[in-house]
Amino acid sequence: QSLLTQPPSVSGAPGQTVTISCTGTDSNIGASFDVHWYQYLPGTAPRLLIYDNNNRPSGVPDRFSGSKSGASASLVIAGLQAEDEADYYCQSADNNLNAWGGFGGGTKVTVL
Amino acid sequence: VQLLESGGGLVPTGGSLRLSCAVSGFRFDRHAMSWVRLAPGKGLQWVSGVNARNRAAEAEFVRGRFTVSRDEAKNMVYLQLNSLGVDDTAVYHCVRDRESRGYGYYFDAWGQGTLVTV
After folding, report:
1. CA-CA distance, B38 to A49, in Å (whole number)?
2. Touching check for A37 and chain B: CB below 8 Å?
3. Mutation target among B36, B62, B103, B108 for the A interface, most CBs of A within 10 A
4. Cα separations (Å) of B107 from A12, A103, B11, B44, B63?
5. How far is CA A23 from CA A6, A29, A54, B73, in A?
6. Rounded to whole angstroms, how far apart are CA atoms B73 and B15?
7. Which residues contact A50 (CB under 8 A, 6 or more apart)?
8. Which is the most buried residue in A27, A70, A104, B46, by most CB within 10 A?
9. pLDDT tens-digit map of A6-51
10. Which of A100, A103, A108 is best to mutate for the B interface (most B CBs within 10 A)?
11. Residues of B with CB below 8 A from A73's CB?
12. Residue numbers in B near A99 (CB within 8 A)
């Protein structure tokens, strides 16, 4: 069972905007801990997409954005492209665990 | 930044393996390091981490079976896996940790991973 809750899948046509939710509890996101997002393409190493809720590492396109409110966070992919088809995971620290916390169950994004 | 894992393989239930991660391209002594795994049909799971002061932590499912360590002189991180079960079958990634703005860590550099099959 994952620490954070994500929808198993979302889909959209090229050019559309999709949003992935990440729901936590009072011991993690709700405790004001930052949320981070990762992209995983099969056969490659996962890569950091968003850190500290809404910051993009260099090289990440600005069509990826993150936000946080209360005990939930969201990843928005605007102008969806075929290469965005991948698995996306959120992650946060947790008071009941440790500073590394845990991940969400992952969301498969399908580009129609 | 380079993280190069090795040591994975096929092991029987109850067996052991030692994973290694060779680190280069950054000040190793300034970063916590972790192991994160991805099992078939499952999501990412943080396994174990060790900070720059050599204090370690593990996920609940580890239950004392795995031990993470680091060698500053060799720029290496290790994960000793004992009492392996079929549920431990996964690709194990070595990752560099960064401190979050507030509290906690995130993972900003990942190795390609090494496959452990139990």
Report:
1. 18
2. no
3. B103
4. 28, 11, 28, 12, 23
5. 7, 8, 16, 41
6. 29
7. A35, A36, A37, A56, A60, A64, A65, A66, A75
8. A104
9. 999 999 999 999 999 999 999 999 999 999 999 999 889 999 999 9
10. A100
11. none
12. 57, 103-105
Does any CB of chain A come closer than 8 Å to the CB of residue B1?
no
Residue A88 burial (C-beta neighbours within 10 Å; 0-12, 13-18, 19+): buried
Q: Which residue has the tokens 């680190």?
A: B23
Give the Cα separation of A17 and A80 in Å (integer). Answer: 6
- Here the tokens at position A50 are 């968003």
User: B50-109, pLDDT tens digit by residue?
Assistant: 999 989 999 999 999 999 999 999 999 999 999 999 999 999 999 999 999 988 999 999
Residues 49-108 of chain A whose Cβ lies under 8 A from any Cβ of chain B: 51-52, 57, 87, 89, 91-93, 97-106
